[in-house]
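Q: Here's a chain of 168 amino acids. Please give me its 3D structure as C-alpha cells.
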Amino acid sequence: MSRFAGHVRAATEADLPSIVEIYNEAIHDRIATCDLSDVAPEERVAWLGRHRPPHGVWVAEEDARVLGWVVLSPYDSKPCFHLTATFATYVRREARGSGVGTALRTHMVERARAGGLHALVNRVWANNDASIALAKRFGFRQVGHMPELVELDGEFIDCLFFELILDP
C-alpha cells in the first residue's frame, strides 16, 4: 500500500463495522489485544458513546475506507486520574507500515493536549516491535516492564509500559 494520504476524523456509529473488522484482525493476529474471540459491531455501540471529550475514538479514512482507528480512554475511574488517559491503536493489515498509525497517533496526542490531559499511558506487548517503535518516535518513555503478564495460546508475553507527559 502507498503512503497514507487520507484524513483522521471522529468515529461515528456508521464506522463500527470497519472498527470491529480491524479489531477482529488484531485478535486473529495475536499481536496487540487480549480479547480471544471476535466482537460484533453492536457490542461497540455503548463503548463508542462512552468516549466523550477529552477522550474519543477517531478513524483514519482514505478513499472513503477506514484504514485504522485509535481510542483515547480514561486511565482509571478514580478522581485523581482525571488528567491521565490510555489509548489503543489498530490498523488494517494491508495498511500497516503506511503511516496510518502515525496519523492516528498525531491526531490523538493533539486532541489529548487540546482536552487538557496531562499524561498518556500505553501498555504494549514486548513482541510488538511496530508499536514500540511508534511509542518511541512520539517521545513516549518506557516506565515499566512486567515479565509474563499476558498468557496467550499457552505462551507468556511481557508487557512494556510507556508514558508521555503532555506539554501545555
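Q: Can you summarize the key feature?
A: Strands lie at 7-10, 56-62, 65-74, 84-91, 119-125, 141-152, 155-165.
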